[in-house]
Write a structure and sequence with these properties.
Blueprint lengths: L6 H7 L1 H27 L10 H28 L1 H8 L2 H6 L5 H34 L6 H26 L5 H18 L11 H8 L2 H25 L1 H14 L4 E3 L2 E3 L3 H24 L3
Antiparallel strand pairs: 1-2
Length: about 290
């Protein structure tokens, strides 16, 4: 409730997503559409057989997953600013004077921030899906939609757990805000919102995919676009359509590459959950040690 009452904090937490949207409208959509058309050029038999509406919907979904992926970094971090404010204003000392145990306090901060992040990012997803539905057929089943919301929830709770470790080192909102500026600038590149991660070298891909947010963005891409890609493959025929879809998946990163190994939709959630579990243990131990007395 404290975070959601701060309207400025909500706006700034969504700032990176707004920037991604502006860049998309000005520059990125044409780049994505050109990349798809370039892929079609490698299959002469597909010339004129894939509708412009399907290409536009594909590019729009790439945009939506990029916006949500960015939001799943900036929103959880901003939801945790309450931790820094309480420490700066010494409010945490009042909480620590109560009989509540240290691990209950830190998990209370974590759960409230994670819930706020799920609420905000879920709202962004809902608005995005409504807008895309008004523009044409998304070829999404109810299962695909539920999968998207599940991935968003997983992304919110995992990002909140990771960033909780970081904010525990900040003693002022000024330092926290400075780090947020760096985070906002880098997030779009790390998750592949501007340039698909697959376009980078193996070493850079590994660095990007160490962060759970990159896996979440790729999972969003799979959940959102598999129906559309299946439609494209069916509409042009399996013989040419499936190889073309495979090219698009390689081009726009539908699998995470980590230390030379590819992680698919079954391995990526396991990786994110592992990072989540480790982060919860670290934040609990760190908070208890910091406020031992």
């Amino acid at each position: 409730m404290i975070f959601l009452k701060d309207k400025q904090a909500i706006v700034f937490s969504l700032l990176t997503s707004i920037i991604v949207l502006a860049l998309y409208l000005l520059f990125l959509k044409g780049t994505f559409v050109d990349a798809v058309n370039s892929g079609i050029g490698g299959f002469p038999e597909l010339a004129g057989r894939i509708s412009n509406d399907d290409i536009d919907m594909f590019a729009n979904f790439i945009l939506l997953t990029g916006i949500i992926g960015s939001a799943l970094i900036t929103v959880p971090y901003n939801c945790l600013t309450t931790v820094v404010k309480d420490r700066e204003n010494r409010i945490d000392c009042d909480i620590l004077a109560t009989p509540v145990k240290r691990w209950q306090i830190i998990l209370g901060y974590y759960v409230s921030a994670a819930f706020s992040a799920i609420l905000l990012t879920g709202t962004i997803l809902t608005v995005g899906l409504i807008v895309l539905e008004l523009q044409g057929n998304m070829y999404m089943s109810a299962g695909n939609v539920l999968s998207l919301y599940g991935v968003v929830a997983l992304g919110a709770i995992s990002a909140t757990a990771v960033f909780m470790i970081i904010v525990l080192f900040f003693k002022s909102t000024g330092a926290s805000g400075a780090f947020f500026g760096i985070l906002s600038a880098a997030s779009g590149f790390v998750i592949g919102a501007y340039i698909p991660i697959s376009q980078f070298s193996d070493s850079v891909q590994t660095v990007c995919n160490l962060f759970p947010a990159s896996h979440i963005t790729i999972m969003l891409r799979n959940s959102a676009l598999n129906g559309l890609l299946d439609h494209i493959a069916d509409s042009v025929g399996k013989d040419a359509g499936e190889p073309f879809v495979d090219v698009l998946k390689d081009l726009f990163t539908f699998k995470a590459r980590l230390f030379g190994h590819e992680l698919g939709m079954t391995q990526m959630p396991v990786y994110v959950l592992a990072v989540l579990a480790v982060s919860l243990v670290i934040q609990t131990a760190l908070y208890s040690k910091t406020y031992k007395k």
